[in-house]
Amino acid sequence: MKFLCKILIIIVLLISPAAAVTFDVLVLPADLLTEKENYYNFNEMSEIISTDIINNFNNSNGKIKSPALNEVRAKLNQNKDLKTLTLKALDNYYHTNKIDYDAFKKIGTDFSCKSVLIISSYVRTNKNSLKRGVWEVLEVSSGFDISYPYRLETSIVLLDTVNNLVMWSNNYSIKLGTNNNLFKADSYPQAQEWLEKLRLYSETIVAPGATQNITLRFFPKAIRPIETKVEGNTGGALKFDRIIPPPPRQKDKTNEEFYGDMIYGI
Known about the structure:
Elements (H helix, E strand, L loop, with lengths): L1 H18 L3 E7 L15 H14 L5 E2 L3 H9 L2 H17 L4 H10 L4 E10 L9 H11 L5 E11 L4 E12 L11 H31 L5 E2 L13 E5 L20 E2 L1
Parallel strand pairs: 1-2, 1-3
Antiparallel strand pairs: 3-4, 4-5, 5-7, 6-8
């Protein structure tokens, strides 16, 4: 009996360390420190997507943990230098797609996280490549009765701040508006309808896809591939084209291996 107990203890000791592995990921939306100035007082898309991904992480049975955005803001507000560094690094990535590895290493270390997830979401038109917030575009198009083919684009990058490399990255893109390219709201209830559709974009496309692929990077053997099939327009007036263009590559890292977006089931 004693021999059997010893065997069981050894088995538990061998298995428990692997089962107890947890990865801490700091999620940073590009608009984390931006003042909310839109008329509707809605969160920007990068925040909405970040919140969904954080919730997915914290519901992963201890595999991945991530501090909530309000906790991140609170800590940054207590450290002026860290807040300035974070604002500068996120703003630089948003406008240039360049990653300041030293800055994100420092930020991750202060949050006891060895991995940092950067999320940037913005709207472009076929008229120019200017990046604008989704609610800013909705206000302008509503006020001036403008109808352009708008696209909401989301860029997500997972950084290994210990080795200063990109573990995974991907871009997501959807068309905003009706079949006539109308993206407007003449009242608050209409704006609320757009908000719900954009939340659906996050909850059903971006957040689950990103969460599963990030989990794959940390636990490749714990995930089995599943087939997915998307047919037609699943988003009503908000068209879910499921177009996933390749992420931008840095000129000085042309040989870097790319881990594209794949849908996996945990």
